[in-house]
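Morning, I've got a small favour to ask if you have a moment. The fold is given in discrete form, as structure tokens running alongside the sequence. I'd be grateful if you could look everything over and explain what you see. No rush at all, and the record is pasted right below.
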Amino acid sequence: MKSSGPSRSRVSAVFRYLKGGLIATTLAFAVAAGYLSLLIFQQQKPLSHVSRYDVAWSASQGVNEFIRLYQRITAFQNMRTQERIEDIQLRYEILKGRVNVFESGFFADFTAGESFREDVIVRVAKAVEEMEGLVADLDEPGHASAIMALMAPLEPDLIRLSSEAAYFTSVKISEYEQDLLQVHRTFMATALGFILFGLALAAVLAFQNRTLAKTQSRLTDANKDLKRAATDLAHMARHDLLTGLPNRRLLREFLEDGVIEGDRVAQDTTVMCLDLDDFKHVNDTLGHPVGDALLQEVASRIKKSVDDKGIIARLGGDEFIVVLKDLDVEASSVLAEELIESISWPYMIDGHDVAIGVSVGLAQTKSNEADWDTLLSSADSALYSAKAAGRGSYRFFEPEMDVRLQRKRLLELALRTADYEKDFALHYQPIVNLNSKKITTMEVLLRWPHTPLGNVPPDEFIPLAEQTGVIVSLGAWLLKKACKTASRLPSSVNIAVNVSAVQFQRSDIVDTVTKVLRETGLEPHRLELEVTETLLLEENSDVHRALRKLRALGIRVSLDDFGTGYSSLAYLRKFTFDKIKIDRSFLTDMESNPAHRAIIDAIIGLTDALGVVSVAEGVETWDQLQLVGDSGCDEAQGYLFSKPVPESEMLRLFGNRTWTQRVA
């Protein structure tokens, strides 16, 4: 009995220690469980931010809104409408909101202490602030161009910032993932302990473990998405999104690897600049989706023709670049002809038959003396020469082409910045009735004497004004100026104004004319609008409708340069003109060329049958006047009566009877 006392005492002590140990262990696990629960709770908020791609998402959305605004501005440059202005203003407000996000929250942590990132945010914020006034008055001349000038330098830095944000977020997620793994290990150890000391506690731990596993899975998926987004952004920065071809940046990288040696281009390198002819017409008539699909088809045909002979890139718009090595002039010419033939073959896109042409400019290195920018500029000069030669052709660069291109660029800049009142002048030339011997009409002729290059002839600056779209505002100014002048002429004398096809295509010509007549008070029947066969060539129902509306207002419509077009008689069947002006080319040698005399007789006979006034242009000699008069022509115009004169001399023509004596 005595021996059992100490034994029980030892057992009791052991149980006490075990009990104390169990309690201590249980408390330790309870504290551990509480600590882990607190840790998990504390991790929820940052994890939720990461799951929403906080920094990367903000950056990518900012870049997207920036690019969308830039695209809207570019589209607005091509066609100015109130709807596009409102869309641009909405996009601007969205971008402005994104800039506020850049300056707060997790994004501020991302940019803090990084000079490049802080500089980009400051520059973007400053540009957005400067753009506010420009966007508010977007329809003011030059504002859209000013906005694009502010935005263009920021685009590559914003794309880089977005890529860095994606990487930054990915790193943060990786750090959280490691923290979660450590929490997971601790929790597993706690779970084992609680399994030993209680199934209930083990069940709770298992539940918590499953919760953590799900969170880890979501974070892993989010990390994969961010890495994929970073890869996509890197691809977008180097490729054209529409065609998948390399862009200018990736092209440069390719060239540095295999063509550019230092800052020189390797010998026997050929650069082709390809530009689609009249691509804008496809966009305007069939819509941008068809235009985009056409560009994709063109890119496919270029790749098929070039194959592995060179590198292809799209620089934007309808311009493509092909870089070739080890091709001589003959081989390059063959490839250029093949490209022109292939691209010009008709397309079937969304049920539309689409025909497009292409012009090609080529530049070759004869040695390794040329740098890449010079070579590309030379190819661009050759392209301009090819287009000037009639399109659908190719030209190799020649040094004198640079002079023509520089002149064109100077004139284009001067056109865009011209003060119409100060830089342009209007001259007037009379049209004389051969029966009454009186002036019936004064034709307005535009002159551009004040340019950095001196006096520029109309046949040079008017096509350029049409190409750039400046003709719309310039033509409206000319029309108003001419109508004001007409109000000072005798009421029996009309004013004739030439109207470009571009004015019909890019503006509401009926509204423009109606507004000018209302503001100037000129009677509609005293205004004559002269159009050429080019306007009617496209069979555009909107153009025909506009012409009919103008005639319904009482405005006279004349067909200028008749006989030089593609199917002149067809136009007379589809539309009724008030006057037909016989092209001056038929008068130049009509005294010695019976064929020209016969054509003039036929045209005058046709106008008589139709009840339309006939006008002979370019009458310079007595013999020409006698011949057109004998043919029955109604009116005549030319240097025999008067050269085009400024307004200050125009009124003298009505008091000067010299020309009247000539007609008599």
